[in-house]
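Researcher: Next entry in the queue.
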Amino acid sequence: MSETFYPQRTALSLAASGVPVLPLRRGKVPFGNCSTCAGNACGGRPNMKTPGPCRCLGVCHAWAAATTDPAVIASPSWSAAWRRAVCVGYHPGGAGITVVDLDDAEAIAWARTALPATRTVATTRGEHWIYRGAITSRNAVRPGVDIKSTMAYARYLGPGTGTLTDLPDAVRALAVKETPPTRPAPQAVTVPAGPRGGECPHRTPAYLERGIAMAAQRITEASSAVHATVYRTFLAVLSRHGRCGCLTDTHIARLFTAAQAKGETPRHCTDAWTNARTTLGL
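Model: Structure for this entry, 282 residues:
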């Protein structure tokens, strides 16, 4: 039968293969901390190798509760949690792997062109692509894509299909958190497009028009991490069109309008544009 009915049995099998597991309750989320650990009063479990001051044997501290110890998994407190669990969760980083969580068809289509093939597991709405190697976890690295590895948990949905391959540089690059330059104090001025009058290498207005339209669409379709999406989009536009003088105030206004429609303030748009120009040395 499926792990939905016997999650503890599946958990013991995974643990025997070196995968740290934990029960997940309704909503596919970890169980809450016990009264002793409420609010991390016990000090928590900072990582899997050095558990820290917490000696609680309950299912506490979310991903950090994940274990391969069969005695813990079968203990009374854990058994009570398994009876209420709806599925098995696991700590990818603790197993030395990384899960690229693709949440929809568009994200899957991107992965098929941008990432090397590896073991794939079907999810409710998309797919998990699993690679050998652990890195820092990071959500919303692009629309519909999360990276789950260290200090995170994933839902176990079966062994999947395909051969497990090494973590590619493309995924490592996505996990690196960009730190935009410190925002300058807001200025009540119109942000310039950049140097004017340079030789434009883009040859036709249609090329620029298509680029602006795609950039505005990327902002419009952002379902999360809107601040980061706006900054990265501005950075991409300026890296391509910011030095030749072909950008106009009308083009910038289109991008600002798309950002403000997603809830960004005029000040944030101005700051993000200025920071992107500073990063590129414009």
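Model: The first helix runs from residue 7 to 16.
Researcher: Noted, moving on.
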